[in-house]
Amino acid sequence: MTIPDLAFDCEDTLTWHTFLVFQLPFFLTYQMAAFLVLVTGRRPFRLIFFPIPLWSAYRFVTSVKLGRGDDPRYDYWNHGNLLMVGSIIARIWGWSITAEKYQRMKRVGHRPSVMTTLVDSFELCINTRGIGWNWGKGNYAPAIPNPPTSNPWRLALSIIGQIVAFDLTHVTAKYLLPLQCGGTIFNLLLPRVQRYTLASAISFLLGFMIYLFINTSYDLLGLIAIFVLRDSPSSWPPIFKSPWLSISLADFWGKRWHQVFRHIFLTAAGGPLSLLFRRPGFVMGSFFASGVVHALGVWGMGRGGDFVRDKRVARESVDIELDCRVVQHDV
């Protein structure tokens, strides 16, 4: 089977029609998977259901191209879309193989109605940290006094401020890029010291953009959960804890960076492999799941992957880079 190249085989952009035909069915299967893990602790039922969201996800990402048609400047929308879809599939797989039935802690000892379970399934779809759930025990949450989620107006202002900061950072990074039409972040026309200094600055800005994007997305989900689903603000503590103050890699990854995907990677691959190889399998399985999800994001850019690179895209990238260098040299 030939894997479709998202850059050239997806002719449909996201419209109301493609949303209803491709994207909505995928999200409905995600909701259904969440419902199943709430109502039954039997793995066979969830495993039988798993191929449905898997096929729905494949159908969606290979049929619809986000962004603006053939404009490569918006391919990052596909990157984000594949990261989202890949993490959701990994999460559904974790739900399929888990032995326990998920419950909100406030529901323990009670038998919720079907409508309550539906509401809980929606909350489960957007809650990736497990705070207030039986599956979230042991997950680290930064203890920050008076977080923005404690006040709706502060949270709204925080979201607006982060969007503005993201836009300014994005514009600055694009301005510093040596090639405005694609290519490398290394300006070969500069001396080595200036070249690597500029590349480091661009890398820092892009990392800050990732931080802002994740934080803003989390706050938006928190806004929905708290003020629409009537969730407790304590269930949505800050997702970051000043990662720039980290004193070690363990401090950075274990406490200060976001823990959104932690449970997903642990249940999808870390836990199963730990049964065979104990702690080494747990660690390697978790990193493997993380690598697969992030590799899907790269594939979504339509330029092949780390192992199989699209030769046509590679040739076009080289041609574009050479043309840009000629323009820069002439200027």
TrEMBL record:
<feature type="transmembrane region" description="Helical">
    <location>
        <begin position="76"/>
        <end position="97"/>
    </location>
</feature>
<keyword id="KW-1133">Transmembrane helix</keyword>
<comment type="similarity">
    <text>Belongs to the wax synthase family.</text>
</comment>
<feature type="domain" description="Wax synthase">
    <location>
        <begin position="236"/>
        <end position="303"/>
    </location>
</feature>
<dbReference type="GO" id="GO:0006629">
    <property type="term" value="P:lipid metabolic process"/>
</dbReference>
<keyword id="KW-0472">Membrane</keyword>
<dbReference type="GO" id="GO:0008374">
    <property type="term" value="F:O-acyltransferase activity"/>
</dbReference>
<protein>
    <recommendedName>
        <fullName>Wax synthase domain-containing protein</fullName>
    </recommendedName>
</protein>
<feature type="transmembrane region" description="Helical">
    <location>
        <begin position="47"/>
        <end position="64"/>
    </location>
</feature>
<dbReference type="InterPro" id="IPR044851">
    <property type="entry name" value="Wax_synthase"/>
</dbReference>
<dbReference type="Pfam" id="PF13813">
    <property type="entry name" value="MBOAT_2"/>
</dbReference>
<comment type="pathway">
    <text>Secondary metabolite biosynthesis.</text>
</comment>
<dbReference type="GO" id="GO:0016020">
    <property type="term" value="C:membrane"/>
</dbReference>
<feature type="transmembrane region" description="Helical">
    <location>
        <begin position="283"/>
        <end position="302"/>
    </location>
</feature>
<keyword id="KW-0808">Transferase</keyword>
<dbReference type="InterPro" id="IPR032805">
    <property type="entry name" value="Wax_synthase_dom"/>
</dbReference>
<keyword id="KW-0812">Transmembrane</keyword>
<feature type="transmembrane region" description="Helical">
    <location>
        <begin position="20"/>
        <end position="40"/>
    </location>
</feature>
